[in-house]
Structure formats: C-alpha cells, structure tokens
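Reviewers of the previous submission asked for a worked example of the structure-prediction workflow described in the proposal, so we include one complete record here. The input consisted solely of the amino acid sequence. No template or homolog information was supplied to the procedure at any stage.
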Amino acid sequence: MRTCCLILLFLSFLPFLNAEEQRVVSLAPALTELVYQLGKGEAMAGRSSVCNYPPEVKKVPVAGSFGDPELERTLRLRPTLVIANDLIRPALIKTFEKAKIKVILMQCRTPEDYYLCVERLGGALGCPDKAAAEIRRMKGRLAEYERKAEESPVGKKVLWVVWDAPLMVAGKGSLPDTVIRLAGGKNIAADVNQEYFKASYDWLLQNPPDVIVWTASGSPEQSHPFWKQLEAVRKGWVVTGIDPDLIQRPGPRLPDGIGVLRTKLEHFR
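From that input alone, the workflow returned the following structure tokens.
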C-alpha cells in the first residue's frame, strides 16, 4: 500500500516536469562517470553509495547501493531514468515502469560494450553528438595502447587476483584481461574460458606468472606457505596500490588505468 501511494505521489509530479528534463538515478559508478563525461551531470538526481567520481557527485543524494536501489528513497527523488549494470531485484523494473520511470540496464566488460553504453546513454540523455565524441576519444586512446602493446610489448606473464580466499583470478573476456593486454602483458589465464574463476594452487604452480596484479585486500605475504613458492612473490613483482577505480571500472578513465599498469609492468626488469 505504501509503495502504491509513493507511485501515485510520483505520478502527480509529472505535469510539473519539463518534457525534456531528465532526472537520472545511476546505480553503477562507471555509468555515473559517463553521465558527467557526456556533460549531463546536472541531470543526476540520485546515485549508488559507491558512485564517488567526479567529486561533485558526492553532493548527489544516495538512492541505494550498487545495483540495489532503495525503492521509497528512489521514488522520492522523482527520477525519469534509472541506469544500472543490472538490478539485484529485477522485479523492481516493473515497479519503476508503473511509475513511468525508464530503466536502462547496460553491462560493460569490454571496450565494445563501453561504446554501446555511450551510444545508448547519449541517446537517452539527448546528447548523441557528445556520445559520438566520447566514442572517438576512447577509441583513439585505446588504439594508442594497442599499437604500443604490439610494437613494444612488456611481455610479462600476468596473474590478476581479484580475491584471495578462495583464490579468484581474471580469465578470458574479463575487463582485467583487456587491461593486461592493452598494457602490453600476457594474461596467464587468457585460455580459461571464464571471465573470473576459482583457481587451485596446483594450477597456479603449473602456470607461474612473472607478475601478479593484486586487487584483493592485503597482499601475498612472502612468508605464506603457498605464495612464497612463486618467484614473482619472492622477487616482489606484485602490483598493488593502483586506484581500483581506474583499472576495474569500465568508464571514461580506463585508459589512465591502463597507462599506470603499463608503467608498473615496465618497472619489473
């Protein structure tokens, strides 16, 4: 009953909203960054609790957590558009649509996905020209890294650890797989046909990396019974401390993250 009342309250505001005015609630950090990249930051009416860039977005009210809006709070923000990678509670889509709120879900794991997200969001926000410019910018930046990776590859075999207990690593088709390749490295799990998978210690000993990119919490200790068996750990060839938002968030700043990782990989000689 309470939800129905909120929906009716939202609908009562519709006559007072400009037909071209967009009020966006974003539940994914990369999409939030993209809204601002397209020059539509003023349209942001709500965000997820993990949407933290650009800094001014922190002034935007929180509508919920990543992919999980709080329904009553979101409706009070009077959005016309909700964007997310996915919703933890898909049934909310019907509730939003009943309130005449458009929902766009966009997964983004590869550069090609990013271009589609840019084009779709540019259309929804009425800025196709800016979307086209952003696609050109991103393609140009990534093409530079593509050429550099081909002409002067770092050549290091890289393991990307996303979680350590259990050990989860990045495989084929994942965003880290793309980042490693464009940074000039070789993903040792590139032949594993899963974006992320649980790796056994035996598998890792059979496929030892030159460098470990560690985006889990903490770091592999040299005194650990297993990690000390890997030469990369013994030599200290472990990449930690890169801003995860740069290398794990498929947004406008991804080329910056690729550049940082390439510099790190080049340091290990």
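The domain at 154-267 is CATH 3.40.50.1980 (Rossmann fold). We consider this example representative of the routine output the project will generate in years two and three.
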